[in-house]
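Q: Got a minute? One more chain.
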Amino acid sequence: DYGSAIEVANKGLKYHPNNPKLWIILTSSYYKLDDLELAKQTALDCYNKTKNQDCYKLYFGISNNMPIKVI
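A: Always. Here it is, folded:
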């Protein structure tokens, strides 16, 4: 479930804060739980820390109320 994914991703980010896959899992989980503000902030944090373009695409999509494909 998405709550568990959030917990696991947060634990992983403590040890690997620059891992974009963990950030994307976290962002996607918040998005699926309809916490769009937290999803948007997490996607922006992901991009700022990793400069990963997938993180920016998530941020752009969420910010512009576009449907996004999530895991």
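A: The mean pLDDT is 95.
Q: Perfect, thanks.
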